[in-house]
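The following record pairs a protein chain with its ligand, copper (II) ion.
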Amino acid sequence: MTPHRLLSALLLVAAPAFAADDDAAAICTEAEERYAEMFGQPSSAVGEAEVVLMYKYNFCPAELTVQAGTTVRWVNVDKRTSHSVLLKDGSEPESDRLFPEEFVEMTFLTPGQQNYLCGPHWETQNMIGMITVEP
Ligand SMILES: [Cu+2]
């Protein structure tokens, strides 16, 4: 097992436990409130994409299941911190650093699991997420 593969395996194990954490749930509730303040509507009102919020070193939700062909929009609702989105399979280049109120979108065509991370914070803050694409 190469070091990179080992790291991937470790992240796969860590992600579900982190998502179930009560702190993460509280952070995600706050993130949604931030979104509503910023954009004047709930994130669920976005019809053309599934929204993942980036807040306090968490992706909200950390795990998301979508149908193939779905566009996912990552929105930074932090106050000062910038984040990025990097798919671990390398099929897309890392996004630009997203500053508060900025977003990036990616469309998922291929069924399977896509682990991703925030370039600046995955290692120190465990800022990682997963998209499951269903056929
Ligand atoms: Cu980050």
